[in-house]
Structure formats: C-alpha cells, structure tokens
UniProtKB/TrEMBL annotation:
GO biological processes: intracellular sterol transport; regulation of plasma membrane sterol distribution; sphingolipid metabolic process; sterol metabolic process
Protein name in the entry: Protein ARV
Family the UniProt entry places it in: Belongs to the ARV1 family.
Any single Gene Ontology cellular-component annotation: endoplasmic reticulum membrane
PANTHER family per UniProt: ARV1, PROTEIN ARV1
Origin species: Oryzias melastigma
C-alpha cells in the first residue's frame, strides 16, 4: 500500500493512487474503497470542463484541484489578481475613460497611486486570510481540539481567489459599471473561498461560511482602520 497522498473527490477519503498503469498501455482509474466511485474522474477530463465545474463551485472539482494536483503558482496568480484589482481601483478613482491604447497601461504603472492601490488590495487580502485562519484556528484548533494545517488552508484560500481574474475583462472593456462588477466578483470570490475551506476541512457549510464572514469582517475593519489613520495612505498619496 503506497502513501495516501490523494483524496477521493466524491467522499474525500484518502487514496494512494489515482490510476494504475499496467505498463502495456492500459490505464485503469482507481476505485475508492469507501464510496466505490472513481477516486478522481477529472484526471480524464479536459481542463476547460474542470474549470467550468470549479466556476460552478462543485466540491468535486475543488477536491481535484486542491488535493490531486500540484498547483504551486498560486503566489503568481495572487500577485496578478492584485495588480488587476489595483489597476481597476486606480481607474475608478480617477474616472478614467476606456482606452485601447496599451501605452496608457504602461503610464499608469508609473503612478505612485497605482502602487498605493496595490498595497491596499494586498492589505485587504492579508486581513481577509488572517481573519479566516484566526477564526478556524480558534474554532477548530482551540475550541474543538482538532489539528489545523494552516499551509494547505492558505494555499486553498489564495487559489480560490482565482475569480479575481475576471477583473481583467472589467479592466479592458468596462469602466462605467466597474463598481457593480467589483461587487459581483467579490461575491463570487467569497463563495469560492467558502467552498475551498469546506473542501479542505471536510466540514459543514456553516463553518466555512462563518469563517469567510469573519475574514470579510476583519478585511472591512482593516480598510476602516486605514481610513481612520491620522495620516492615511490616501493622504500620503495626495488623493482628494
Ligand atoms: Zn470515495
């Protein structure tokens, strides 16, 4: 019996392999001992189908991505999403008109205000992740006496922020409804975050929703605290 490093996407039971190679070109998908279903049917699927299922927040797709793949570029994804968010906020702040000129984007990156927006977006993300992890650490670790691995949780939280990539089309095509789009994208990202926590902890939906709500609350508090500072970041950057 090999080391159980994978998870069944149906019941979240541990598994030692996703498929067995019979070396003469025959591959057989492993069947879960617990639920008698294929451990991970997605290994046969096209990545687009997996992405669609992930967008639909299917727990199976989340389990496939978080447990049975080795996506380690989540920091790059996170930085890219923050850049998009910073650019969108910057353009909303200045009421910029849509422009198809690529030189505009280069000009914007030279603006200090843009980096200020990037810093604020990073701060909000840190406050959110910190709030979620603190809540789960207190609830699962301290109150229920369970063990909590923060590394996989943080990875799941950052990966499940992939919805922020939707900011790219907002940046490119739309400025008039940017705030509404931001709100909808935020709702989608929070839903994905909740599903990711639920999958990682194999917990009930209420716990993951409560953790995300606490994270959102701490994020809001961080934003308010920044605005209340005697010398806020906005003042430093000379906004308003
Ligand atoms: Zn199973």
């Amino acid at each position: 019996m090999g080391k159980e490093v994978y998870r069944c996407i149906e019941c979240s039971d541990k598994a030692s392999e996703l498929y067995r190679d019979y070396s003469n070109g025959i591959l057989k998908i492993t069947i879960c001992d617990s639920c008698q279903k294929p451990v991970d049917k997605y290994i046969e699927y096209d990545p687009v189908i997996i992405l669609i299922d992930a967008i639909l927040c299917k727990a199976q797709a989340f389990r496939h991505i978080l447990f049975n793949t080795s996506l380690n570029n989540y920091w790059k994804l996170c930085a890219f999403c923050l850049l998009c968010e910073a650019y969108l906020r910057w353009s909303v702040l200045h009421g910029s008109e849509p422009s198809g000129d690529p030189a505009d984007i280069i000009r914007y990156t030279k603006e200090w205000e843009f980096y200020g927006m990037f810093g604020l977006a990073a701060l909000e993300l840190s406050a959110f992740c910190g709030g979620v992890l603190l809540f789960l650490w207190l609830w699962v670790g301290a109150l229920q006496g369970g063990s909590l691995q923060l590394g996989p949780l943080l990875r799941a939280l950052l990966l499940s922020c992939y919805g922020k990539v939707l900011l790219v089309p907002v940046v490119i095509w739309e400025h008039e409804y940017s705030l509404i789009c931001l709100g909808l994208i935020k709702l989608f990202v929070l839903t994905s975050n909740s599903q990711a926590i639920r999958v990682i902890l194999n917990s009930c939906r209420r716990l993951s929703v409560a953790a995300v709500a606490f994270g959102f609350l701490s994020e809001t508090c961080a934003v308010r605290a920044c605005q209340q500072l005697p010398c806020s970041i906005q003042d430093l950057l000379g906004f308003q």
